[in-house]
UniProtKB/TrEMBL annotation:
Lineage: Bacteria, Bacillati, Actinomycetota, Actinomycetes, Mycobacteriales
Compositionally biased tracts (Basic and acidic residues): 1-25
Membrane topology listed for this record: Multi-pass membrane protein
Protein name (database record): MFS transporter
InterPro entries: EmrB-like (IPR004638), MFS (IPR011701), MFS_dom (IPR020846), MFS_trans_sf (IPR036259)
Gene Ontology MF terms: transmembrane transporter activity
Organism, scientific name: Rhodococcus spelaei
Compartmental location: Cell membrane
C-alpha cells in the first residue's frame, strides 16, 4: 500500500511539473499568441494594423526595383556608367540585408512598433536626401541610409502579423502581406517610369516623403504596442556577416571592371571565408547568437529560406536587363518600358490574396512548386523573344505568365516559413527569413550586373556603350546589346530552379490542435 501511495504521489508531482512547464513555455507550432496575450489584445484592430504595416512595407520594396527603370536617366544626368548605377541598387540592398538579423532582435527587445517607426523616419529622410543628390557618389551614400531604415522596418511587419493574428487567420494575413511583397517589386518599375518621364528621376525618391508621413501616422494609430523580451546582441556576428557580404558583393560586381584580376578573386574568397567563419561562430556561440541555427531544425523553415533566397535573386536580377532592353534596344520611354510590367503586376495583385486563402487548407508544396516552375519557364521564354524587332505582344505573354507565377510563391513561402516556430522565436525567425530574401536580392543585383558587363564585352558592345541622348542605341551595336540582355535574363531563370526543388520538399505544416511534428524546440531556438 505504501509503495502504491508513493507511486501515486510521484505521478501527481510529475503531472504538476509538466503543467507548470507548459504554462511557462512559449506557444509552439506557430500557434501565435498565448491565451493570456490573446485576451489582453482582444481589442486590437488586426486588419487596420496589417494595412498600416503593409503601406510602409510596400514603399520599401518598391524602392528595391524602382531604380531599374530610371538607370538610363540617372546615367545621363549624373554622367556615370552602367556599373556605377548598378551600385545605386546594390548599396541599398546591401545596407538592407546585412542588419536584418539584428534588427529583428531589436524589435523583440524594444518593441516592434517603436523600431518600425524609427526605421520609417530614417527611410523617409534618406529618400529626400536621395532626391537632392547631385552626383552618383552622394546618391549611393544616401541609398545606404535608406537601406538601413528599411532593415529596421521589415522584420517588425512579419513579427507583428505572427503575434496579432490567430493561426486560423494567419494564412489569409500572410497572403495579403505576400501579395504586397509581390506587387511592390513589380509596381516599382511602373511607378518609376511614370515619375521619370513626368517629373525627373529625382522624384522616384522624393515621392516617398508624403507616403512616409501617411504611413507613420497610420502606424502610430493602428499598430499595437506588444510585449518585449530582453536580448543580448552578437556584435562579432554582425561584423563578420557585414564584412563577408560586402567583400563578396564587391568582388562579384567589380570583377569585370578590374578584368577579374587576382585582387577581385581575393575579395570574393575573403567574403566566402568570412561568411563560413560567421556560420561556425554562430554554432559555437551558446549565449545568444545573431543567427539561431536551431531555427533550421524546422524543415519547412529551412526550405522556405532557400526558396525565398532564389526568389529575391530572380526578382532583382530580371528587372535590370529587361528595362535596359526596353529603353536602349526598343527606344521606349521610361513609362513605356514600365508599362510592359502591367500584366505581371495586375495578375499578381488579383491572384495573390485568393492564393493566400488556400495556404491554410492546401499543402504548400502544391502551391509554391508550380509557381517557381512557371516563373523559371516564363523567364526562359522571355529571353528567347527579346529580339530587336519582336512584336510587343510577344513580350507581354511571358510577362503575364510571370504575374501568375508570382501569385503562387510569395504568400505560401511567408506562411510556411514561420508557422511551426515557437513564439519566442518570432522576431528571430522573421529576421532570418527577410535576411535571406534580401541576401538573394543583393547577390542577384551583383550577379546580373557582372553578367551584363561580361556579355556586353563578349558580344562586341564597346565599354560604356549605352543609349544615346534620344534613348536608343547606335544601330551598329543594337544586336549585341539585345543579345547580352537576353542572356542575362537566363541567370534568374536558372536560379529559380533551386526554389522549385526546395518547395517540392516541403512537409505538411502542423495545423492548430495537432500534436507537434516540428523538430525545433523552444530551447533550441531561443531568440
Amino acid at each position: 500500500m505504501a509503495a502504491r501511495a508513493d507511486r501515486r504521489d510521484r505521478e501527481r508531482g510529475a503531472a504538476l511539473a509538466r503543467t507548470r512547464a507548459e504554462q511557462r513555455a512559449p506557444p509552439r507550432n506557430g500557434e501565435g499568441l498565448n491565451v493570456t496575450e490573446t485576451n489582453q489584445n482582444a481589442d486590437i484592430k488586426q486588419w487596420p494594423a496589417l494595412w498600416a504595416l503593409c503601406l510602409g512595407f510596400f514603399m520599401i520594396l518598391v524602392d528595391s526595383t524602382i531604380v531599374a527603370v530610371a538607370n538610363p536617366a540617372i546615367m545621363e544626368s549624373l554622367h556615370t556608367d552602367i556599373n556605377s548605377v548598378v551600385w545605386v541598387t546594390s548599396a541599398y540592398l546591401l545596407a538592407y540585408a546585412v542588419p536584418l538579423l539584428v534588427t529583428g532582435r531589436l524589435g523583440d527587445r524594444f518593441g516592434p512598433k517603436k523600431l518600425y517607426l524609427i526605421g520609417l523616419t530614417l527611410f523617409t529622410l534618406a529618400s529626400l536626401w536621395c532626391g537632392l543628390s547631385g552626383n552618383v557618389e552622394m546618391l549611393i551614400v544616401a541609398r545606404v541610409f535608406q537601406g538601413f531604415g528599411a532593415a529596421l522596418m521589415t522584420p517588425q511587419t512579419m513579427a507583428v502579423i505572427t503575434r496579432i493574428f490567430p493561426p486560423d487567420k494567419r494564412g489569409t494575413a500572410m497572403g495579403l502581406w505576400g501579395a504586397v511583397a509581390g506587387v511592390a517589386t513589380l509596381v516599382g518599375p511602373l511607378a518609376g517610369g511614370v515619375l521619370v518621364d513626368g517629373l525627373g528621376w529625382q522624384w522616384i525618391f522624393i515621392v516617398n516623403v508624403p507616403v512616409g508621413v501617411i504611413a507613420f501616422l497610420a502606424a502610430m494609430r493602428y499598430v499595437p504596442t506588444l510585449e518585449t523580451h530582453s536580448h543580448r546582441f552578437d556584435i562579432p556576428g554582425v561584423v563578420l556577416s557585414a564584412l563577408g557580404m560586402f567583400f563578396l558583393v564587391f568582388g562579384l560586381q567589380e570583377g569585370n571592371t578590374y578584368n577579374w584580376s587576382a585582387r577581385v578573386w581575393l575579395f570574393i574568397a575573403a567574403g566566402v571565408v568570412m561568411l563560413i567563419v560567421f556560420v561556425w561562430y554562430q554554432s559555437w556561440n551558446k549565449n545568444e547568437p545573431l543567427l539561431p541555427l536551431g531555427l533550421f531544425k524546422d524543415r519547412n523553415f529551412s526550405l522556405a529560406n532557400i526558396a525565398i533566397t532564389s526568389m529575391g535573386f530572380a526578382i532583382t536580377a530580371m528587372v535590370l536587363p529587361l528595362m535596359f532592353y526596353a529603353q536602349a534596344v526598343r527606344g521606349l520611354s521610361p513609362t513605356g518600358s514600365a508599362l510592359l510590367m502591367v500584366p505581371m503586376a495586375v495578375l499578381t495583385g488579383v491572384l495573390a490574396p485568393n492564393v493566400g486563402k488556400l495556404v491554410d487548407r492546401v499543402h504548400p508544396r502544391y502551391i509554391a512548386a508550380p509557381g517557381f516552375l512557371m516563373l523559371s519557364v516564363s523567364l526562359g521564354w522571355l529571353a528567347l523573344v527579346m529580339k530587336p524587332d519582336v512584336a510587343i505582344w510577344e513580350l507581354l505573354l511571358p510577362i503575364g505568365l510571370m504575374g501568375v507565377a508570382n501569385a503562387f510563391i510569395w504568400s505560401p513561402l511567408a506562411a510556411t516559413a514561420t508557422r511551426n516556430l515557437p513564439m519566442n522565436a518570432a522576431g528571430a525567425g522573421s529576421g532570418v527569413y527577410n535576411t535571406t530574401r534580401q541576401v538573394g536580392a543583393v547577390l542577384g543585383s551583383a550577379g546580373v550586373g557582372a553578367l551584363i558587363t561580361s556579355r556586353l564585352a563578349a558580344n562586341g558592345v564597346p565599354s560604356g556603350g549605352g543609349p544615346d541622348e534620344g534613348g536608343a542605341l547606335p544601330s551598329f551595336i543594337v544586336d549585341g546589346f539585345s543579345t547580352s540582355m537576353a542572356q542575362a535574363v537566363l541567370l534568374p531563370a536558372g536560379v529559380l530552379l533551386v526554389g522549385f526543388v526546395a518547395s517540392l520538399c516541403f512537409s505538411r505544416p502542423v495545423r492548430a490542435g495537432e500534436p507537434s511534428r516540428a523538430d525545433a524546440t523552444p530551447e533550441s531556438v531561443e531568440a
